[in-house]
Each structure stands twice: as C-alpha cells, then as structure tokens.
C-alpha cells in the first residue's frame, strides 16, 4: 500500500501543483481534503497550462480517480466553471473519475457578501483574504445552525427551507453592519443552486466510504494539500491564516482516511518565501531584491492576481511546518528564480527580545518582533533551468540545497528548476 501526501510548509503557493501532477502517474486516486477555491494550482502538462483551484490535479489524467473530500468547502458555480474549462481544454471527463463528498459544505453568495463586510470593517487589521467566502463558510460549518452541505441540496424541501431561513438571518445581520448591502433573493438562489446540484449529481457520493474501500483494496492514493502549514487555522500565524487545517493536520479530518495510512509525507518549500495577504513576515524584502524575486518568480496570485510579498527563505517557518506534518522528505521549488544573485540569505533562527530561538512564535505580536538571524551563502551565476542531475548543479546551488535540508531537518528529494515536468531533479539519496 502506498499513500503519499503533498503538504506546503510555508504560506502557500509553494508550487505544490507541479509535484502533485508529477506524482499522479504513480497513483490511482488523488484527494483534495481542505480549503476551497482560495487555492490556485498552475499545472503545465503536455505543453498546456491548466489553472486548477478546486479540482484535484488528477483530473488531467483519465485513469485517475479525483476526490473532493469532506473537509473541502465547495462553491458549485466555481467548480462547474472549472470543470467546463477542463472539458474545453481536454475533452469530456468520465463521471466516474470525479467524486465529490456529500458531506462537504457549500459556499453561497451570502458567504462572499459577509466576508466583504467583515474585511471592510477591519480596515488596517484586515486578513487580506481571497474573498471567496472560505472563512465565512467554515464559520457556519463550525457554528452548525446555518450551514448547508452538498447532500442537503438533494432534499428539495429541506434545502429550500434552510436557505430561506439562513438568508433571512444573514440579511438581518448584514444590514445591521452595512445598511447599503443589497438584499439577496432566496428563491433565485434556490433555483440557481438546484441547477448546480443537478449538474454535480453524477459525481456526488460518500467519499469517505470510497476512500476506505480504496484503502482496503490497496489503491495508491495521493493527498493534495492546499495552502501551507503557516496558514493552518490552529498552527499557523493566527489570525492571518485560512480557515482550515492546511498543515498535514488537516488530512485525517478532511478526508476521513487515518493519518497512519500515509506512507510518504512530502513537504514542499519554495527556495525563498512568499506570502499573500496580511500578517508579519520576518524575512520580507521590501527592496530591489524582493522585487527581483517577484519579477523573476512571477509572484502574483493565481486566484486574485495580487502581488505576493517576497523574502529570503525562512528555515524557522519551514522547520516548524515540517515538524507539524512529520515530513519524510522535501521538494524544493523555484530554485532557478535565485540564479544570478551575488549572495543569498537564509533565516536560520529568530532573535526575539534579545534571545535566539528556532521555535516558531505562537503569538503574532511575538512574531512581529522576530528579527531574522541570516546566514549568507554565495550565489551562482549560471542558468540552472537545464540541470537534470543533482551532480550537474553549480557548487553554490548544491550548497544552498544542502543547507535547506540541513536546517529543516529532512532530506531534499526533489528540486524543481522550472515549470515543466522535465525541469525536475530527483535527488534519489545522492
Ligand atoms: P495555494 O493552494 C497562498 C491566504 C490569503 C489570506 C489568507 C486567508 O495556492 O497555496 P482565505 O481566502 O483563505 O480566507 O484567506 O490565506 N491564502 C493563500 N495564500 N496560497 C493559497 O493557496 C492561499 N489560500 C489562501 O491570501 O492571506
Ligand atoms: Mg496559490
């Protein structure tokens, strides 16, 4: 039995999509288990570029079963739009190759509206969310009283009754916060969502049962984490996090597959750091080097197009992410972006109130005080995008890779030096 998980160890956007796509060939089932269409994966395969948000990368492979499991929050309109785009690019998909959990919670227009009102009211303290209604949908899930799951949409009376009651309640709240909020029409939303439900129906099932059966049958499974460990609701840089468990901690609750079934936990890191949205970022570079990384790495959000904040690699962050998920090995992505720099710095510890620490601060105010203790490494000037073997990297690039592995405390098994599948070096213990 083989079950692999791919987890981001930073603040998301680690290029997990490429690793998942590469590994999909060796797996029969690919599972998304948390987050929603706040995630954005760009996958380049067969000369085509695909932008995936809710769909597991397995969708590009006809013989792979793609599962959107229970812990995901689903915007059906966004999901159907994504499916239509994939069908346009790749041709029809077999209904049996995509399963959507009937237990997953559904995002409605009021979730986006509520998020917009809440974010606006926080002004400078805004989280800087993707505005996809992710946090507000998860809030309703945990609150329980005003939540609708995918399965509810197939009980028309129950669905309509719930929707009318919820929309009435939401409008009362929203108007109190912002009198200019446009009213929502419960009947129109009911009709719209009933159509989405009808289109999704061939895919909707009890994904937990499907996964348990797959586990019993020895099927090879790949778990695709969205976001990154530092955006984890419990373990990340709260409140500047997303509303799900984006570290390995989310795998079990989001999929229903026990964590001990995972045989290989791969931690994915970018060769530097980025972050979108608010919150302290100790190694942030608000200078020409930061801009250089942003330009070369095309660090603009896949989902929102926002420029990403860029900085040096932070081993305190990645080491913490690696420990949270218990990673077996690392994939280092976008190493080519650092080519051409004279020197490269890595944060190996923080200094907080005059003390050195490699523990990640639990409070955001303490993190804001952290001064990065930087190790300076020599850069490399040559183009590395054509490297295919570990031994072919320039000496300084090799030193950089080894230093990342040493500071994080896990072996680097994969190095990516460009978006194409071929631009991948498998280190294989060498
Ligand atoms: P992938 O899967 C990077 C960030 C948002 C914001 C915070 C909360 O591409 O790595 P949310 O809309 O989730 O409530 O926003 O989380 N965020 C991401 N940042 N990559 C992502 O996904 C992200 N998904 C959410 O920018 O700071
Ligand atoms: Mg992204």
Explain what this protein looks like in three dimensions.
There is one protein chain. The protein is an alpha/beta fold and 430 residues long. The protein is built from twelve helices and 20 strands. Helix 3 (109-121) packs across helix 4 (134-143), helix 3 runs parallel beside helix 5 (156-177) and helix 5 packs across helix 6. It starts with a strand and ends with a strand. Residues 8, 11-13, 38-40, 127-130, 132, 134-135, 226-228, 231, 240, 242-243, 276-277 line the site of 6-O-phosphoryl inosine monophosphate.
What structural keywords apply?
ten-stranded mixed sheet; binds magnesium ion; binds 6-O-phosphoryl inosine monophosphate; alpha/beta; four-stranded mixed sheet; 430 residues; single chain; 12 helices
Helices and strands, with pairings:
Layout: E1 3-8, H1 16-24, E2 29-32, E3 41-45, E4 48-52, E5 65-68, E6 73-74, H2 76-90, E7 98-101, E8 105-106, H3 109-121, H4 134-143, H5 156-177, H6 186-200, E9 204-205, H7 207-216, E10 221-228, H8 250-255, E11 264-270, E12 273-275, H9 288-296, E13 309-311, E14 313-314, H10 315-325, E15 329-333, E16 343-352, E17 355-357, H11 364-369, E18 371-378, H12 395-408, E19 412-416, E20 424-426
Parallel strand pairs: 1-10, 1-11, 2-5, 2-10, 5-7, 6-8, 7-9, 11-15, 14-16, 15-19
Antiparallel strand pairs: 3-4, 12-13, 16-17, 16-18, 19-20
Helix pairs in contact: 3-4, 3-5, 5-6
Magnesium ion (MG) is lined by residues 12-13, 40, 302-303.
